[in-house]
Amino acid sequence: MGEQEDGACEAVVVHGIKLAALQPLLPDEDRSQVEAERFRVLGDPTRLRILSALSLAELCVCDLSGLLGITQTATSQHLKILRASGMVRYRKQGRMAIYRLADPTLTALLARMRTAPREEGLNHERRSV
After folding, report:
1. How many whole angstroms separate alpha carbon 75 and alpha carbon 64?
2. Torsion of CA 89, 83, 113, 107, to 10 degrees
3. What structural domains and CATH numbers belong to the chain?
4. Which residues of the chain form beta strands (DSSP E)?
5. Which of 28, 51, 85, 118 is most buried, by the most CB atoms less than 10 A from its CB?
6. Which of these, 64, 93, 94, lies nearest to 76 by C-alpha position?
7. What is the pLDDT of residues 6-42, one digit of tens each?
8. Is 87 exposed, middle or buried (0-12, 13-18, 19+ CB in 10 A)?
9. pLDDT tens digit sequence for 59-83
10. How far is CA 128 from its chain centroid?
11. Going by C-beta distance under 8 Å and a sequence separation of 6 or more, which residues neighbour residue 78?
């Protein structure tokens, strides 16, 4: 019992004990749907930059717009999506809304992204494949 040439297993379940131990550790369908949505939200480069900025400091829409070089309208639209996904929160300071990250796990992930070594092969050549 091994793998076929196309990589498919010949047997239906080879490692039943291992699978039984892993099964309770996997997220259920509902949790997987929620997490997939989070990753979809994170998949937008502008939203990822907004989150990265907010992982460094609390900022208002004006500051985020200036920092990222995009309009306040575009910034607000991205923040609306990030709020709906539960990734950011805001507090009112007078008439201004000051945004911050809502999830400490996200803060740690973004910090790791900043400090992780950059992969040299991630360029236009890879995108065109």
Report:
1. 7
2. 30
3. 34-112 (1.10.10.10)
4. 59-60, 88-93, 96-101
5. 51
6. 64
7. 667 666 667 778 888 999 999 899 989 888 888 888 8
8. buried
9. 999 999 999 999 999 999 999 999 9
10. 23
11. 44, 46, 47, 50
> Encoding tokens for residue 43?
């998949």
Structure token pair of residue 32: 């997987």
User: Any idea how long the chain is?
Assistant: 129
Residue 20's alpha-carbon distances to 1, 24, 88, 102, 104, in angstroms, are 20, 8, 37, 35, 31
Q: Structure tokens of 42?
A: 């994170």
